Amino acid sequence: MAKPILISGIQPTGRLHIGNYLGALKNFVELQNSGKYECYFFIADLHSLTENFSPQEKSKQILELAADYLATGLDPKKSVIFLQSQVAAHSELAWIFETLTSLGELKRMTQFKEKSEKEKERANAGLLTYPTLMAADILIYDAAFVPVGEDQLQHLELTRTLARKFNKRFGKTFVEPKPILTESPRIMSISDPKKKMAKSEPSGCLFLDDSPREIKAKISRAVTDSGLEIKLDPEKKAGISNLLRIYSSLIGHGIPMLEKKYHGKNYAEFKRDLAELVINHFADFRKDKKALMARPQTLVAVLKSGSNAATKIAEKKIHEVKKKIGIAF
Ligand code: TYM
User: Fold this and answer.
1) How many Å apart are CA 88 and CA 314, to the nearest integer?
2) Which 3 state secondary structure label does DSSP give 134?
3) Which helix (H) or strand (E) holds 81?
4) What is the model's pTM?
5) Closest ligand 1 atom, residue 44 Cα
6) pLDDT in tens, 74-125
7) Fewer CB within 10 A of the end CB, N or C, for the chain?
8) What's the burial of 240, exposed, middle or buried (CB within 10 Å: 0-12/13-18/19+)?
C-alpha cells in the first residue's frame, strides 16, 4: 500500500532556533526515519520574501537552511528536499486559492495581524495572502500530514477549509491534511518566557549553531522566577517550565523524571546541566553544518534534484486542478 504523504517547510530567514528544532525539525527527521511516510521537506523562500531582505543575504539563508536540514539528519535519499520557488505550480495554485478565500478569512489570521501591526503602512500584500500559498504548498502533494509548531495551526485550519471548499465546489480533488505536533509545540523565549521564541527577537533565542560559550552564557542568563523549586508550572514558573520542556524534549524523557532528579537542587545546577546537554546535543550538528557550508555546490545540487522530483508531482496536480475549474483541456 502507498505510504501517506507528509510535508513541511521552514522559511529561510536566518539561523534556526531551538523552538524551530523542537517544534518542527527534530520531528521531521524522526518522521522521515520512521519509514512510515513519503516525505517532502522544502525551503519556503517565497514566503520569506514577505519580510525585508537583500538578494545576497537571501541566497545565503537558503543555503544555510539546506545545510541545517542535512546536518540535523534530513536525507535526500529518504525525503524529497526542495526549494519552493523552483516548483512553479505552488504559486499557480496559490493564486487560484486566493480567489476562493475571503478577505475576512485572511485578515483574521493572528500572524497577519501581528506582522502587519508591526509594519503598519509598509506591510505588503504577501503578508495577507501568505496562508493561501501555504495551503497550496501542502494540498498540491495530497499531503495527509503536516508536522509544524503550534503557531502554524491556524494556517493549517485554513488549508483544511480551502480543501473542503474546493472539493465541494469542483468535486473531490484535495486531501484534508492533519497537523502533527511535538511534545513541545511552543518553546518560549529564554529572556521573556511569556513570549514565544522567535527569530525576530534574537535575544530570547538559543540558536542551533550558537557556540558552547554562547549557549552557557545564554542559559545562565535565562529569565526565571525568584523561587527555588524546579517544577513545571507554566503560569507561575514560566521560565523554569520552558527550560524543563527544552531539557525533556532533548533527552526524550518526561518532565516528572527531571523534577525528581532536581528535587532540592538549585537553578544554577539545573542550568549548568542543561547548558552542557545543549552543547553536546548540537556538537555534531555544528561540525556537519560547517562542512556542508563549505560545499555550497552540493547543497545546490540537492535542492535542484529535489525540486525536479517535486515539480513532476506538482505539475500533474495543477493540471488536474485547472481541468476541474474549466481552464485546461
Ligand atoms: P517558520 O519558518 O516560522 O518556522 C518553522 C517551524 O518552526 C516552528 N516554530 C516553533 N515551534 C515551537 N516553538 C517555537 N517557538 C517555534 N517557532 C517556530 C513553526 O511552527 C514551524 O513549524 N509558514 C511556515 C512555513 C511554511 C510551511 C508551509 C509549513 C510555509 N509553507 C507548508 C508547513 C507546510 C513558517 O513560517 O514556519
Assistant:
1) 9
2) helix
3) strand 79-83
4) 0.97
5) 30
6) 999 999 999 999 999 999 999 999 999 999 999 999 999 999 998 888 899 9
7) N
8) buried
